[in-house]
Design a protein that fits this description.
Helices cover 44% and strands 16% of the residues. It is built from 14 helices and 13 strands. It has two domains: 4-166 and 347-362, Glycogen Phosphorylase B (Rossmann fold, 3-Layer(aba) Sandwich), CATH 3.40.50; 187-343, Rossmann fold (3-Layer(aba) Sandwich), CATH 3.40.50.2000. The chain has helices spanning 17-32, 47-51, 71-95, 108-117, 133-138, 168-171, 199-215, 231-240, 254-260, 270-279, 295-305, 318-328, 331-343, 349-362; strands at residues 8-12, 36-41, 56-60, 99-102, 122-126, 144-147, 160-161, 187-192, 220-225, 245-248, 263-266, 282-285, 309-311. The mean pLDDT is 90. By secondary structure, it is an alpha/beta fold. Helix 1 (17-32) links the parallel strand 1 and strand 2. The longest helix is centred in the N-terminal third of the chain and has 25 residues, at 71-95. The strands form two sheets. The protein has a seven-stranded parallel β-sheet with strand order 3-2-1-4-5-6-7, sandwiched between helices. It has a six-stranded parallel β-sheet with strand order 10-9-8-11-12-13, sandwiched between helices.
């Protein structure tokens, strides 16, 4: 058995909160065991702002993905991948982690391949209902494969479904039932575009709320998360439309916002789906139409099939369908949707994964 306080574990996760937060949830469990965490991320993502107060050594990769991009990048990709695997190889030789956790996204590929060459065991964590390209590449080499959903497309028979690792603030909600506002006829609506914001939601939803208030006399209290670059523009749009709304770029403590809300309108990334289930809150899900492998729609379908959410796709009928739904909804229906979302939640994923990592470390 190794001394865990002298052990290093590498977490590869970068870009969006959907990759970062599951990795952080597992990392926090390992930090509790005095394991040293190395984190490989990207300079363009949330890593700096999310991990700055953590006892984590942060490193950055310049590697860029290939899917959905032009022919020139596709042609040069094998060479760039070779260079990045070499860089990862040298990084692993220098830092000497005993284990690696790959949370999906293109930057994990060179580090997973280099770890395999160096006989460093690693696991992959797949958050979505369709396994991402990076995890599909690494799947044959991974020691363990952890899934969020049972029926994940493209996953190996070796994979284990454990749910999506949740941060501690969500784990604490395991025994707390859904919370509802007491605002009479007024409903609290929380709009989330994900950690990077969603241009479509940021521009179309203020118009929808304006129509509802002016034509249907339906009143809402609105909090809208817009991403880091759009706050001023969205505030101005709400002001011009005479709609009162609180507009924020990003929430450090999102749990309070979820518990305030009667309804969440959001994209359907795996992180948000898992958080909706953990809190127990009704939702309207607007899948990103150009998401690779249409994974956001598949994520959203898991909630809709359980009557915990309503999918409204991003197309020319979006505004009509959303206003119709909001006009017809009532508090009793939202409460029913919230409880059905809560029934889908799994709260021990981070512990299951961290226990497996520790088991692998002790077996070395």
């Amino acid at each position: 058995m190794v001394k865990l306080e002298k052990t290093k574990v590498l977490v590869c996760a970068g870009g969006t909160g959907g990759h970062i937060f599951p990795g952080l949830a597992v990392a926090e469990k390992l930090l509790d065991q005095r394991i040293k965490i190395l984190w490989m991320g990207t300079k363009r993502g949330l890593e700096k702002q999310t991990l700055c107060n953590k006892s984590i050594s942060l490193f950055f990769s310049e590697f860029k993905g290939v899917r959905g991009l032009g022919l020139s990048r596709l042609i040069t990709f094998p060479f760039r991948l070779f260079v990045e695997v070499l860089k990862a190889f040298l990084f692993l030789l220098k830092q000497r982690p005993s284990y690696a956790i790959c949370c999906g996204g293109y930057l994990t590929v060179p580090f997973g391949l280099a770890a395999k060459i160096l006989f460093i065991p690693f696991c992959i964590i797949e958050q979505n209902a369709v396994m991402g390209t990076a995890n599909r590449v690494l799947q044959p080499f991974a020691k363990t494969i952890f899934l969020n959903f049972d029926a994940t497309v493209y996953s190996s028979h070796r994979a284990t479904s454990v749910g999506n690792p949740l941060r501690k603030e969500f784990e604490r909600l395991a025994t707390i039932p859904p919370v509802f506002s007491r605002n009479g006829e007024q409903l609290n609506i929380l709009v989330l575009g994900g950690s990077l914001g969603a241009l479509f939601l940021n521009t179309r939803l203020p118009e929808c709320f304006s129509l509802l208030q002016n034509e249907n006399k339906k009143f809402f209290s609105i909090v809208h998360q817009v991403g880091n670059d759009n706050q001023n523009e969205v505030c101005e749009l709400y002001r011009k439309l005479n709609v009162r709304a609180v507009v924020e770029p990003f929430f450090e403590s999102i749990v309070d916002q979820y518990q305030w809300a009667d309804l969440v309108i959001s994209r359907s990334g795996a992180g948000i789906i898992s958080e909706l289930m953990a809190v127990g809150v009704a939702s309207v899900l607007v899948p990103l139409p150009n998401a690779i492998d249409d994974h956001q729609k598949r994520n959203a379908s898991i909630l809709e099939k359980s009557s915990a959410a309503k999918i409204i796709e991003q197309n020319t009928l979006f505004q009509t369908k959303l206003t119709s739904f909001l006009c017809s909804i009532n508090r009793e229906k939202l409460i029913d949707m919230a409880y059905k979302a809560k029934e889908l939640a799994r709260f021990n994923s981070a512990k299951i994964i961290s226990d497996e990592v520790i088991k692998a470390l002790n077996a070395k």
